[in-house]
């Protein structure tokens, strides 16, 4: 709604000026669907479809665009994005992304994700991706590091050290799950996003199944995600079912700079 408003003002303002100057007084009817302006006996209808939506871009998002990153929703249609670090529903309980609501990745990585999504659509047309995180600028990584209430020695178990940088800081890692294409409702993967513990570990699934901590259905859902991500060229990690890397750290460092 906020994004729509700027443009709405842009169009509405001259209409109101015109109307105020009109000796016949105001005759405009404004609805959510269209703006109708009666002027000198003629009806002018400006349909919403003619409105180009103007995006409000904050300084953090602009810095990502300037660094050559792309909005994944511009590359892949039909996916959902819910940046958990732009809400308080995350491990830190803080919104550290502010007005950044869109997910950015290196262009090559967004193309790989597109390939994975095409495979998903081919095999499970009722499903899509729900993306939780993509690039994480170093400035944000520093905030996470500083606010993590753990001794420095164990902090790397939870977040990458901003002095070193993690693959999210290069824009080559993505956190995501599967969701129903129609509603965006996430599939049950056995744990929430950013759950720290063995039930979230892909490399502990056999043990977690034996212990009844996760179910076969949850593992089957993870396997669909892993299969299509692998098809796109990503590799998973042993401790987070939602995290996928497009490049190794060495390749990422050679190919891309850390995103400040
Ligand atoms: Zn991740």
UniProtKB/TrEMBL annotation:
Is Heme one of the keywords UniProt gives this record?
Answer: no
Provenance organism: Fontibacter flavus
Please indicate which residues carry the site annotation Transition state stabilizer.
Answer: 136
PANTHER family assigned: D-ALANYL-D-ALANINE DIPEPTIDASE
| Protein name listed in UniProt | D-alanyl-D-alanine dipeptidase
Swiss-Prot/TrEMBL cofactor(s): Zn(2+)
HAMAP family found in the cross-reference section: A_A_dipeptidase
Top EC class for this record: hydrolase
Enumerate the catalysed reactions: D-alanyl-D-alanine + H2O = 2 D-alanine
Q: Which PROSITE patterns match?
A: PROKAR_LIPOPROTEIN
The answer to keyword Cell wall biogenesis/degradation applying to this record is yes
Q: Which Gene3D superfamilies match?
A: 3.30.1380.10
Q: Which UniProt keywords apply?
A: Cell wall biogenesis/degradation, Dipeptidase, Hydrolase, Metal-binding, Metalloprotease, Protease, Zinc
The record's family statement is: Belongs to the peptidase M15D family.
């Amino acid at each position: 709604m906020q994004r729509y408003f700027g443009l709405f003002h842009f169009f509405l303002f001259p209409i109101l000026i015109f109307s105020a100057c009109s000796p016949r007084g105001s005759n405009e009817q404004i609805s959510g669907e269209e703006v109708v302006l009666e002027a000198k006996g003629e009806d002018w209808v400006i349909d919403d479809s003619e409105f180009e939506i103007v995006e409000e871009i904050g300084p953090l998002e602009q810095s990502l665009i300037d660094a050559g990153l792309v909005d994944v929703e511009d590359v892949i249609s039909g996916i959902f994005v819910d940046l958990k670090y732009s809400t308080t529903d995350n491990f830190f309980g803080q919104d550290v992304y502010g007005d950044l609501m869109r997910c950015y990745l290196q262009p090559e990585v967004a193309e790989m994700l597109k390939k994975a999504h095409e495979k998903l659509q081919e095999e499970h047309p009722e499903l899509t991706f729900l993306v939780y995180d993509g690039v994480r600028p170093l400035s944000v990584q520093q905030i996470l590091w500083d606010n993590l209430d753990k001794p420095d020695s164990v902090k790397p178990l939870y977040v990458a050290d901003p002095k070193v940088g993690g693959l999210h800081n290069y824009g080559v890692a993505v956190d995501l799950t599967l969701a129903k294409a129609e509603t965006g409702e996430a599939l049950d993967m056995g744990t929430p996003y950013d759950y720290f513990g063995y039930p979230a570990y892909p490399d502990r699934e056999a043990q977690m199944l034996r212990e009844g901590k996760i179910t076969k259905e949850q593992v089957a859902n993870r396997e669909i995600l892993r299969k299509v991500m692998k098809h796109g060229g990503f590799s998973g990690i042993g401790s987070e079912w939602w995290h996928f890397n497009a490049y190794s750290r060495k390749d990422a460092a050679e190919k891309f700079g850390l995103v400040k």
